[in-house]
What we know:
The protein is of the alpha/beta class. It has helices spanning 9-20, 25-38, 43-50, 54-67, 84-96, 102-113, 119-128, 145-160, 227-240, 259-265, 285-296, 305-317, 324-330; strands spanning 167-174, 205-211, 216-222, 246-250, 270-274. The protein has a five-stranded mixed beta sheet with strand order 3-2-1-4-5, with helices on both faces. Helix 1 (9-20) packs antiparallel against helix 2 (25-38), helix 3 packs across helix 4 (54-67) and helix 9 (227-240) packs parallel to helix 10.
Amino acid sequence: MRSLRLLTEQERLNLEDQLKRAKNSAEWKRLFVILSYDEGQSIQELARLTRLSQWTIEEYLKEYSSRNKTKNDPRGGSSSKLTEVEAAELEQHLSKTTYLKVKCIVAYVHKTFGKQYSRTGMTDWLIKHGFAFKHPEKVPGKLDPIRQASFIEEYEKLKSNLKPRDWILFLDAVHPEYQSQAVCGWIKKGECKTLQTTGKQKRLHLVGALNLKDMQVIVREYETIDADSMIRFFKDLESSISDGEIHIILDNAAAHKNHKLTDYLTNTRIRLHYLPPYSPNLNPIERLWKVFRETTLYNRYFDSCSDFFAAVRGFFADKVHKIQALLRRRINDNFQIIKLNPIKLA
């Protein structure tokens, strides 16, 4: 490729002077590429020396050859900016269509609007307009936003009609496993931190109920979670709550929804309200489990199962009552309906 005409002596002197006064590395690299290519350096060699792509090297040379461009445009764009109307149209297009590579967006902009952006310029444009390179959020395939909205409406009615001595409790089971849980944290670049793991994977089986009104947490441990353990748990609830109806909001797990449990509940003060399927976002006790893992399990190694079990039991027996302020900040019933926005690839 010889897209750059030979430089005159005066052009070279001017470029050398600009190189010495370059205000940033990007400007310096652009000038270095133009001068070095004129001296006979190959595009491949320049890409290696500057750590730029060959495509970017070619763009620098074309832009200087066509319009003597030696500096990056303000905010990383190109000299052919999108108008406000074009920018709005592009935003709308990108909201509907997901591109995996910036170069594909560059090609779309050039084809649609006749405007040429470098990949760096388009990346800066995307950031400036609120786009980020991130994973789509995974949601259950059978998620039903309509049923979630209906549940929230019924829940608000239940709250508004609640009698003074009645209770609303959110219930769920959790099964903490004796295994180190590594999660991301801020670690200095180049430094490697390690977390020991265990070979055994024993676990505990806990059932918990959460009262949002006073952040009271009731947790019981069982050998397994089935209809019998749920009946025992509900018996404990009734014995600890002297009067009033006990409204339990819970998911559709087999242990929560079976004939044996239904028969037992017939003559109790407990009323069950089932969540829509695949809706953990509507159960605030899920956030309690999150706080539990963050404060007790994440990035921690336990020498033995007994140490692990002691830490888990200690959280629910003692620590949970000392972090009420944290729980009130993190846990509430301001439910957010998960809206389906299926990804459409370009």
